[in-house]
Structure formats: structure tokens, C-alpha cells
Amino acid sequence: METKLHSFLNSNLLNKYLVGETSAEETTEVEFFINNYPEAAIAYEKLQGNLELIAKAGAVDVPNNVLSNILEALEESNDTKVIQLIQNKKTPWYSIAASAAAILFAVTSFILYQKNQMLNDENNVVIEEIFDLRSDIENNNAKLDELSRELNKLNNPDARKYVINGNERAKNLKTVAYINPVEKTSMIDVITLPQLPKEQHYEIWAELQDRMVNLGIIDESDRKLKPIPYMEDALALSIKIGTSGKTDENNTEVAEISLKEK
Fold first, then answer.
1. What mean pLDDT, rounded, does the chain reach?
2. Which residues are CB-neighbours of 207 under 8 A, at least 6 positions away?
3. Quick one: fold of 160-258?
4. What is the SS3 assignment for 79?
5. Distance from CA of residue 180 to its chain's centroid?
6. How are strands ordered across the β-sheet holding 160-165?
7. Which of the 8 DSSP states describes residue 12?
8. Are strands 160-165 and 212-218 parallel, antiparallel or unpaired?
9. Farthest-apart Cα atoms in the chain, separation
10. Per-residue pLDDT tens for 40-81?
11. What is the C-alpha to C-alpha distance for residues 100 and 69, in angstroms, rounded to an integer?
């Protein structure tokens, strides 16, 4: 239906409906879209406003000097220096008036045509802005839904919060871990991480009874809740400085939090 609405707005049916040139079938289609789609109703109201502007523009009197210039041009065209063998009859005044009226009508029609083209272009811009706005709304709604899901996870009474602060080697380091033993989910929120050389990075580890398990790399650029693997019966979480291309549980430890207290 989104495609049909877009095709309808890009068609000329609204313009025809506004000036009463639609067939009975086209009238039914136009009124259906206006009554059921706010975008169509907005576009129709916009066209109504544009039509009023055209009517006002057409009601403005043409400057007096335009008609005078036309009459002067006609008189100059009749002033000839060629000797006529047979004397021509003088052009009747009503012929001059008719010619002037025709030229004036042509000028007015051209001006109105230009304004109509401008209004059509403006109408197309309005349609594009409407669809861009719909897209922005959908994207914002998706982000709000994602944020709502994250907040629900944080506010879950089963979720346990662990603030991990850095030791003397990384005093400015601060992250927060959220562990839900009921749903068996783990997330980490990066607050601050001191900058490291390019070849180094921070890793989060889980300490089990008999071994250490690498849960992945954490980065300050990812400043949002990040899921990490849930480890059953983990005794502690620690953050270490690792080197690219190497996996070593003996890397330099810069932060640790015990999970046995909670």
C-alpha cells in the first residue's frame, strides 16, 4: 500500500480533482486516499493553498505601461516608407484592440504557466519531505524500542550490577557489568577507558574455578550496552590489556570485580 500511496502522490490526480477534471472513478480514488492517508490529505491542502495563490496572482492587474507598449509597437509596425501603388484601408481600431488583447492573454498565460510549474515542483518537494519524515519517524521508533528493551534489562529485579574500576595501571578506567542469573544474560556498559597504543586493546575475562575465559574485546567507541557471554558460576570479572594477534590469560590486569558478594 505504501507503493500505491507514493504512485498516487506522484500522479496528477490531485491536481485534476482540485480543478474538477476527474472522472467518477478517479474522484472515488482521490477521496479514498484523502480520507484514509494523512499524507494525501496534507498534499491536497497544500495544493488548495497553491491554487489560491494562483487565483490571487491572476487577479492582479497588468501594469498600464504593458498595454501602452503593445499599442506603440503596433503603431510603429504600421509606419512604412514603401510607396504603395494602391492605397490600403486604415486598420480598424477594434483589430488593434483584438491584437493587443491576444498578446496580453499570451503574456498572462505564460506567467501563469511558469507559476504552475513552480507549484508542481514545490508539490513534489513536499511529497519527498513527507516520505523522508515518515522514514525518520520509523528510525526513531526503532531506536526507542531498542532503548526500551535495554532499560527493561537494566531495571529487571533479577539483574545484578557490578561497577568495575581500574587499578593503579588504569585509574580512569570505569565500566559497569549487568548479570542476570535467571535469564542467563550478561552485558557491559563502557564508561571510560584510558587510551592505548594501536597494537593493544582491552579484554574482559571471567574467572572460573579452574580457568580464565576470554569474553571478548571492549572498546570506548562502543559506548552503549554490549552483550557478553554469560558464564555460569563465574567467580570474578577482570579487564586486561591484550596485544593484537595474541591470546594470553597472563596479560596485564588493570581492573577486577568479585562476583561472589552478590
1. 77
2. 234, 235, 236, 237, 238
3. Immunoglobulin-like (2.60.40)
4. coil
5. 37
6. 160-165, 174-180, 185-192, 226-228
7. S
8. unpaired
9. 126
10. 888 888 887 776 666 555 554 545 554 455 556 555 545 444
11. 10
